[in-house]
Amino acid sequence: MSLDREEPNYFGAGPAQLPTNVLQQAAKDLINFQGLGIGAGEISHRSAAGVGIVNHTKEYLRKLWQIPVTHEVFFLQGGGTTGFSSIPTNLSAAFAKKSGKKGRPAYVITGSWSKKACEEAERLGFDSQVVVNAKTADGKFGDIPDVDKWTIPVAEDTPYVYYCDNETVHGVEFQEFPYEKFPGVEIVADMSSNFLSKPVDFSKYGLVFGGAQKNVGIAGVTIYIIKKSLLDYPSVKELRKLDIPITPIAFDYPTVISKDSAYNTIPTFAVHIIELVLENLIKKGGIEIQQQENVKKSDLLYSTLEKYPTFYHLPVTKRARSRMNVVFTIKDGSLDAEFLKEASDVKLTGLKGHRSVGGMRASLYNAVTLPSVQLLADFVDKFAKAHQ
Amino acid sequence: MSLDREEPNYFGAGPAQLPTNVLQQAAKDLINFQGLGIGAGEISHRSAAGVGIVNHTKEYLRKLWQIPVTHEVFFLQGGGTTGFSSIPTNLSAAFAKKSGKKGRPAYVITGSWSKKACEEAERLGFDSQVVVNAKTADGKFGDIPDVDKWTIPVAEDTPYVYYCDNETVHGVEFQEFPYEKFPGVEIVADMSSNFLSKPVDFSKYGLVFGGAQKNVGIAGVTIYIIKKSLLDYPSVKELRKLDIPITPIAFDYPTVISKDSAYNTIPTFAVHIIELVLENLIKKGGIEIQQQENVKKSDLLYSTLEKYPTFYHLPVTKRARSRMNVVFTIKDGSLDAEFLKEASDVKLTGLKGHRSVGGMRASLYNAVTLPSVQLLADFVDKFAKAHQ
Questions:
Q1: Less packed terminus of chain A by CB within 10 Å, N or C?
Q2: Where are the domains of chain B?
């Protein structure tokens, strides 16, 4: 029974391509894990092997991303969307413990994901403060407005300021968040689509979270990195008095952390895939090496697209361009289908843009190799020459 | 690269053994799914292949379990524990739409899982009605008290009555729930640990749910089967007025159903494993065949244990004994470790009882074969003869 495959050139936005050697190991482990006679999806999450998977994954992540002892790492199910719900309730509880009040969470909106996060907080009964909405400021998503246009919230009233470090749909990524504008406010970042793609200074963050299914695994696990000082909450009774919604128990951060991410049955096999991806990244040389590769990949593609300014259009302002999701359109929109068809003919797949943006999107996550991007760049080049 | 394994005899309570042929197919599909060149964990949940996995799984389940058109099937992440939170908020919303009030959910408590479900509803701010608590009635869990000892709630006040059809920890299973005692009340059953183990008359139920990781898959997916008439809710504003907590958006049943279980990224690979398990069960002959096998397996083990009444103890009353989780202890408790060691020596594993009950527990889920149970029964026999 063969577990071989031709190396894919898949540029999907997530779930996304994973290293073939990782999947081959995972496939074997699905049948028989560590010689136990049963697979990694069958072992108990309370067994030594099951607990080992969680612990190794945490250790590897701490090591790779230099996560300081001030921060805790844990896993939840439900994806980033569940984070949109659990972040306001959990972080407002921590804020209430310190301040005695509910406060108003602040949101920086630079694309559809941060917008959704803000809307969910409001739906749950939080009165959010919008720091900036790039769509209102610029008429469309595609830039990060200058900080002098932002409305900075008052720290005493603000449990946290939330932003999305990389907007997958719109291809907008922060080069660096203006931390210094928010003294005394906890900073929360959704890094779902640039998770582990670059070094991060965690001392700046109250919370960083990301779904696994872009850079580090398959769908079904979300990784959270939280400042330990944010884990002390008032009682449920007190929270109710302050009109702070009670978090469902499986998403109550202190509860989950107290049970090493296994308050309820953890998806062990999906965590094991993350473990293997991280192990692979350590062997490859670590986060700086990966970042250099990511820079090379995106530079190559952006510079190729820029060679044909009358043919291709790059809707994102240069300073806000994502290293992970390269969004581009063909000025003659009628050529989109032809582009995708010809690309697919040479086995370059997953390039169709998000339905809300149109055109093309090439996601260059960690597992997408430089040779793959070279093939895509060559195709981009050839297609422009043939059709311009 | 070999994907073979010796057939396991694993009796763990969940995650649990799965059919080897299912795992072998899943392993191949993890690398390359349907010749697409990428695996089932890498494809987009919005692609034809990804949507196909969800649709086939729903179709197979409908077919196998004869789910009527009055009911909808959908998938969530988070396991049964997330159901403990999402059921009171969702079903109370449906109840409020019809009655204009919040009501008080009713709970039948026959073991630790139904107890946890009731506690979570209370934690979220619901004033629950306890129909019966077997522990209070009998001093311990291990029986289902006679229905004449139950306090039957008033239908006009009761959004639903909740029970756990099979208590995994205590090995207590309903032969048949007394539906007729609750006219006009929606009945909700947690079937996590006897999911698809027997036919079910869904016309009796408002909602049936179960985590995949016992009978039908790996951890990370929970399956819900809900009556369509329970999907109409008042506005968030009206819910707030009635003091009904707002459900996090990824667990709002009408929202999830409106997006075919993919409101947010669904764990496609974990759903695919369910798809393969169901396909396998269809090939095997369906639910009645599986039920007959399950009856044979549990009869064999219980009758073997009963042959040694001075040596083994069966803590669960005969009428409430689970077909899925056979709980037993050795009267001389000092022999437990020896039993587990000798069993492990002959490759019978996963037999340790839950920490809260002690002794042994043999989980005889669908994938555990009759020959495996025969081996276990022979061992039970031999061990008693050697040590009594």
A1: N
A2: 48-281, 287-387
Q: Yes or no: say if B354 and B361 are a contact pair by the CB < 8 Å rule.
A: yes
Distance from CA of B280 to the nearest CA of A (A): 17
- DSSP structure string for A2-47: ----PPP-B--SSS----HHHHHHHHHHHH-STTSSS-TTTS-TTS
Q: Is A190 a catalytic residue?
A: yes
Looking at the predicted complex, does its ipTM rise above 0.95? yes
For the domain spanning B48-281, the CATH number is 3.40.640.10
A6 contact B CB<8A? yes
A385 is catalytic: no
Q: Choose the closest CB to B81 out of A250, A269, A349.
A: A250
Q: Do A220 and B37 touch (CB under 8 A)?
A: no
CB-count burial class (<10 Å; 0-12, 13-18, 19+) for B42: buried
Catalytic residue among A135, A214, A227, A352: A214
Partner-chain contact B41 A18, CB within 8 Å? yes
In this complex, do A3 and B28 lie within 8 Å of one another by their Cβ atoms? yes
Contact B218 A267 (CB under 8 A): yes
Taking only the tens of pLDDT, chain A with its 388 residues reads 579 999 999 999 999 999 999 999 999 999 999 999 999 999 999 999 999 999 999 999 999 999 999 999 999 999 899 999 999 999 999 999 999 999 999 999 999 999 999 999 999 999 999 999 999 988 899 999 999 999 999 999 999 999 999 999 999 999 999 999 999 999 999 999 999 999 999 999 999 999 999 999 999 999 999 999 999 999 999 999 999 999 999 999 999 999 999 999 999 999 999 999 999 999 999 999 999 999 999 999 999 999 999 999 999 999 999 999 999 999 999 999 999 999 999 999 999 999 888 999 999 999 999 999 999 999 999 999 999 8
CATH topology for the B287-387 domain: Aspartate Aminotransferase, domain 1 (3.90.1150)
